[in-house]
Amino acid sequence: MKKILSVIVSVSLLATFVLSGCGSKEEPENAKESKEIVVAANSETGGLDPAGMIALTYLAYSVSALDELLTYNAQGEIEYRAAESYEVNDDSTVWTFHLRKEASWSDGTPVTSADFLNTMVRSLDPKSGNGYANYLFPIKNAEAIYNGEADVDSLGVETPDDNTLIFTLEKPCVYFLDLLRLPVYTPSCTKYADSVDSGWDKNPATSVSNGPFYLTEYAPEQYFVLEKNPKYWNAEQVKLDKITYRFFDDTQSMANAYETGEVDVAPSLQSSVMELYDGKDDLVITDTIATRYIYPNLNVKPLDDVRVRMAINLAINREELCQIVGEDTEPTVNFIAKYMKDKTTGEYFVDGAEPPFEENVEEARKLLAEAGYPDGEGFPTLTYNYPSLEMDSDTAQVFKEQLKKNLNIDIELNAQELQVNYTERRAGNFDLCRMNWTADFADPYTYLSMLLSNGTYNCSGIQDERYDSLVAQSDTETDPQKRASLMHEAEQLAVGEEFYIIPLFSMKSCNLIRPEITGVTQIPATGALEYRYADIEK
Length: 538
Description:
With about 550 residues, the protein is α+β, with helices and mostly antiparallel strands. The protein folds into three domains: about 1-65 and about 195-280 and about 515-538, D-Maltodextrin-Binding Protein, domain 2 (3-Layer(aba) Sandwich), CATH 3.40.190; about 70-100 and about 110-185, Dipeptide-binding Protein, domain 1 (Alpha-Beta Complex); about 290-510, Dipeptide-binding Protein, domain 3 (Roll), CATH 3.10.105.10. The chain contains 14 helices and 23 strands. The protein has helices at about 55-65, 115-125, 140-145, 175-180, 250-260, 270-275, 305-315, 320-325, 360-370, 390-405, 420-425, 445-450, 465-475, 480-495; strands spanning about 5-10, 35-40, 70, 80, 85-90, 95-100, 155-160, 165-170, 215-220, 225-230, 240-250, 265-270, 285-290, 290-295, 330, 380-385, 410-415, 430-440, 500-515, 515-520, 520, 530, 535. Strands 1, 12, 13, 14, 15, 16, 17, 18 and 19 form a nine-stranded mixed β-sheet that branches. A hairpin with a 5-residue loop joins strand 5 (about 85-90) and strand 6 (about 95-100). Helix 7 runs antiparallel to helix 9, helix 8 (about 320-325) packs antiparallel against helix 10 and helix 13 (about 465-475) runs antiparallel to helix 14 (about 480-495). The longest helix has 18 residues, at about 390-405. About 50% of the residues are buried.
């Protein structure tokens, strides 16, 4: 029977697979049989440093190798990890966390408050390239430090002793505990973690872990191996001995590897596997908390004209797009993920307001004419950058054809290797650029923050004081209904009035997992697969 997990899921769904012989060691004949799984990962992008350029490789590594201070379980209850308790002052501006005294890195070095501070300080250096740095901005002076306007010593983080970590915020932040699972709040060992480009993070001798598994082998563009961390404070609950992550160039190769037995988990596959594996226990379908969209660069003419951006949005037939791209996609005109739930109501957040806009080709043509391009005449050829992945290639072709048919404008397609696409987007080197955002935590702010004037993922030059103000008000609003209203208003402004992005579709994730693998869970905040307490039934 097909397994369907209706939970909020992240794009970052990571796979695990068994790669025979990789990093293996000879064991005595009487040794117990090793429990190993192999997970497929889609391309090698970024590093393993939580203070560095975060991409798919880190996301695969971190869910098994690093402990955050705390997180939330499926029931919405706090699950303590690196911290064992916390307290907060009356106005919610000072948060004190007490670390586990028994926690240590995989080399036996104690995990200290300084290790957490180490990641934060390095992340606030713009040279790190960390796109999550803005999630540190609720902390006193963090934004000023990032902008070079304050000394790092003024950061509102205190480490009075090895086991105490104190955050002083600029103002109350209603989602602060949600932020603690993000890379910039996880520790990096001060003994080894220095520069983001020193290579310490991919060197098994220096890439120590405070979580259930630690790095024992890293073969660039091939695979990396994690083994059970005997120094982990909760090691008794860890059943797997080894997880190998193997890199693949595309999802078809991942599916083929599952078929041949090379991998045990293949995540986020193309929709065709739904038919191939229908009725089999291998197939796990999940809703992803993610939105696939396009960034128009506001620094490029004529995309600086809101009428042009609106025309492009209204001219896209998203239903047709999804029919071509795959049955695992669903049209959306929202930025906030279709499947993100409102914590208060339990309903999908976007259902709490009218859609930001409606598609209308005739209106799109009128807008383009008003902008000075009747029937597309004189409109410059814009380049659309996108990763050279199957779904993105199909999307790009439909996007190009629809704009030609409906607006008579030409788009030049530029397929890029995934890491190149990521780097060029971050540098602002694009006209139109594919983007996908999976929730980092279970709050709409994870989306709204992307379009803030000071947002480190704001790659298209958005500067909107009214939008910034609405989001800032929602940060401190404790009344759930009033806060939701502010966030809906912010999304309407950004997506339905100024058209800062071009939303396309949300997705379901088709994952293949060997039926004998048990205990694979999903991180409630993001939907990402987690293997820390997985097991293999014999």
